[in-house]
Write a structure and sequence with these properties.
- With 247 residues, the protein is mainly β.
- The chain is built from 4 helices and 11 strands.
- The strands form 2 sheets. Strands 1, 2, 3, 4, 7, 8 and 11 form a 7-stranded antiparallel β-sheet that branches. Strands 5-6-9-10 form a 4-stranded antiparallel β-sheet, with no helix packed on it.
- The chain starts with a helix and ends in an 11-residue tail after the last helix.
Amino acid sequence: MSAEGYAELVKATTGYLGAYPLVVPISVGDYLQLNAEGVLVHLGNVFNWPGWTDDVLVDTTPIGGSETYFAGCTRETSVDSSAGVKSPLGLGAEATVSLIFEKENGFVLAYEAATRQKVREVPDVQRKIIQLARDGQWQKEWFLVTEVISAESATLAVSTSSGSKVSLHANAQLPKGLSAIQIADPKLGWTASSWGGSGFSSVCKAGTPLYHCIRVRKGWFNSLLSDTLGPQDMEDAFAVDDPFFDV
């Protein structure tokens, strides 16, 4: 699956674009481009440019707990109480979580210990990018990251054929109740089996699973829209959150 296809798949479920592969680091202020293979290429960060650090404020907020998103996938969990690590209470188990994908391009994304970074005033950044484009310093193929959710641990599984299956195995002391098992919890010692079918998996790795971005586009008569436009027109000046918009 290409980065473009995965990003759109995740957007339909989460409202965010999905970073693919998951371990690609993405930061607020990064400007990126897709290469011919559909892979994100990091070009630089606008906060290294004069004036950006002083003019653009970024808020950072910790996100408590964990999140799991999925589409086109079912989960089956089994526990072998004869294996695994024994707890002080004499309880121990080794769990297997099987992810079964009913269709091509299904996914499961889970993360925990996350942080959200977000540009405080996106319209101000939009105007700055329009001016850079007018001055010939911003290319239409570039898109600018305005918000990221980064995670200390994230697990991703993506199918590339229908009927695919991958199993995740935990070998650690398990919490009471299978519903409490989090497949992005590194303390549970998760590992992935080989795929039945085809797909990609990344287990309990640090990364940037979700992000938002903006991109300049042309208006009427192939001219860039004005930086003095109102809020509704400003939305029209950008392919907001959609770097793959065909301009």
